[in-house]
């Protein structure tokens, strides 16, 4: 007969378990905080602080006359990924070179006067933009002005010094970015896509509420639109880095490239919906489909938030059955309404409604397609 095991855990083992639990909780909390918005800001600030300190130490060790230029370069070019930091660094280096050379030439030929300053600033900014170095244009004009106003006695020596100091700051920023909290373009892209979807959900909600209530909060929408545009611009650079292989994700784990097209199309669709809301008048035809539009809007907004969480957390195998039900109900009701005598409604009102409804439907379809690409990855 087998005796029951009544052995109780020893006090020592209980103490060990109790010690492990708080430790694991603290580690989990720190990891969660590090991935949060405030955590990302803290890590970026730390990298900037380290890069600036190292740049200053090296520049002082080399006994350069203006070490703060290396510090400024290290701070300004620091970005979330290696690729974006390199791109900013190249732009800053080009701007410094154009400005320094332009300032040195005009300082040597025309001297230190308002005419020399104006011509130099104009030409350096114009040439930087003409050569497609748009991010470097203002810096080029700024550097050329400094050369003419304060260093006209030895412009070429000053220009060479600014080039070396800027190069040092960029190099230090790249090294720090690679070894301190390194972030791959793939992870940054996922965070960017998530934030874009969250902002799109907010914009979409304002537009639909404006359509159903005839009360559109346009100032609030403009602020959200500015955020979306900034996210899309950032995403464009991150997509480029991912294609260049600057990511630690394997190809099968990367976000499907169809997302770049789909998310931009959703943005364009919502802009179209917004236009119909802005130009609408005392439309009443909308009220016939109000329950179905409300349901579709709720499921669409929910799908955007689910996709935002899914892409950020590297999850896959996502399906959106609720949005399919809402699309089907809205389409069936819309087809039923087409049998009503529509001559009682102005043609422009019908066109506004049809444009809004079909575009709203396209947003839902695009979200379904995005979910499908995640499931197939």
What does this molecule look like?
With 377 residues, the chain is mostly helical. Helices cover 77% and strands 0% of the residues. α4 (82-110) packs antiparallel against α7, α8 runs antiparallel to α11 and α11 runs parallel beside α13. The longest helix has 29 residues, at 82-110. It starts with 10 loop residues before the first helix and ends with a helix.
Compact description:
77% of the residues lie in helices and 0% in strands.
**Helix/strand order:** HHHHHHHHHHHHH
Largest sheet: none
Distance between the termini: 55 Å
Which shape, going by the Cα principal axes?
elongated
Number of helices in the DSSP assignment: 13
**How many DSSP-defined strands?**
0
The quaternary state of the protein chains shown equals: single chain
Mean pLDDT value: 82
Strand content: under 5%
Look at the helices and sheets and give the structural class: mainly alpha
What helical percentage do the residues reach? Answer: over 70%
In the predicted model, the low-confidence regions spanning at least 5 consecutive residues are: none
Radius of gyration: 29 Å
Primary descriptors:
single chain; 377 residues; mainly alpha; 13 helices; 0% strand
Please give the structural blueprint:
Elements: H1 11-35, H2 37-61, H3 68-77, H4 82-110, H5 114-130, H6 137-150, H7 155-179, H8 185-213, H9 218-243, H10 258-279, H11 290-312, H12 321-337, H13 347-375
């Amino acid at each position: 007969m087998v005796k029951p095991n009544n052995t109780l855990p020893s006090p020592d083992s209980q103490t060990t378990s109790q010690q492990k639990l708080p430790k694991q909780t603290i580690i989990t909390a720190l990891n969660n905080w590090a991935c949060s918005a405030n955590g990302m800001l803290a890590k970026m600030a730390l990298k900037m602080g380290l890069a600036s300190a190292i740049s200053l130490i090296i520049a002082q060790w080399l006994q350069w006359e203006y070490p703060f230029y290396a510090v400024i370069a290290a701070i300004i070019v620091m970005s979330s990924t290696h690729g974006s930091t390199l791109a900013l660094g190249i732009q800053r280096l080009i701007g410094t070179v154009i400005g320094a050379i332009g300032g040195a030439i005009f300082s040597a030929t025309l001297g230190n006067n308002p005419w020399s300053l104006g011509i130099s600033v104009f030409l350096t900014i114009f040439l930087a933009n003409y050569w497609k170095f748009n991010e470097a244009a203002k810096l080029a004009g700024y550097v050329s002005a400094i050369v003419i106003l304060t260093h006209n006695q030895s412009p070429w020596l000053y220009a060479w010094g600014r080039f070396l100091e800027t190069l040092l700051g960029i190099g230090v920023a790249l090294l720090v970015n690679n070894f301190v909290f390194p972030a791959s373009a793939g992870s940054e892209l996922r965070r960017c896509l998530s934030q874009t979807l969250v902002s799109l959900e907010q914009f979409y909600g304002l537009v639909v509420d404006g359509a159903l209530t005839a009360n559109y909060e346009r100032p609030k929408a403009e602020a959200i639109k500015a955020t979306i545009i900034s996210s899309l611009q950032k995403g464009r650079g991150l997509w480029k880095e991912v294609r260049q292989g600057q990511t630690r994700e394997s190809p099968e784990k990367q976000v499907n490239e169809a997302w770049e097209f789909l998310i931009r199309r959703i943005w364009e669709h919502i802009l179209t919906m917004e236009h119909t809301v802005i130009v609408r008048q005392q439309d009443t035809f909308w009220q016939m489909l109000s329950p179905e539009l409300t349901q579709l809007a709720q499921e669409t907004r929910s799908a955007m938030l689910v996709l935002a969480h899914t892409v950020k957390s590297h999850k896959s195998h996502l399906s959106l059955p609720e949005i399919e039900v809402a699309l089907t109900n809205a389409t069936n009701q819309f087809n039923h309404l087409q049998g009503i005598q529509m001559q009682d409604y102005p043609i422009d009102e019908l066109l506004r409604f049809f444009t809004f409804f079909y575009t709203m439907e396209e947003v839902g379809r695009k979200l379904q397609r995005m979910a499908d690409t995640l499931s197939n990855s």
